[in-house]
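Because discrete structure vocabularies remain unfamiliar, we turn briefly to a single example record, giving the amino acid sequence and backbone structure tokens:
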Amino acid sequence: MNSETAKLPRGQSYPLKPSIMEAALKTAHVSIDTHLVRGPGKIFSADFWPPNPNVPHERLYVRIGSVPAEQAQAARDRFERAVVPALVAWIGNILALDPQSPVRREKQRLSLNEF
């Protein structure tokens, strides 16, 4: 798993540590090239990208925004309890499909704001 973390403005915090996401994927035996980007703002989404002419393998691209520092612990609890398990289940279900499945051959998006 690759991870990028942008510097946060004062008073902001990230609700997810890369190690938590990496451990969840490993525990679920989900193996996919994963890129986690953490940056300021309210961006919470995950994209499954199938192979294409420029990149010949499947990828998971996750964007996690920031929350006010006073909300960080509650947000971390929610991410660890609901968001990360839902994300792992979502990508696991895609990868369980036949590689020729139309779902697995198309870009898929999961909005993490729903959890």
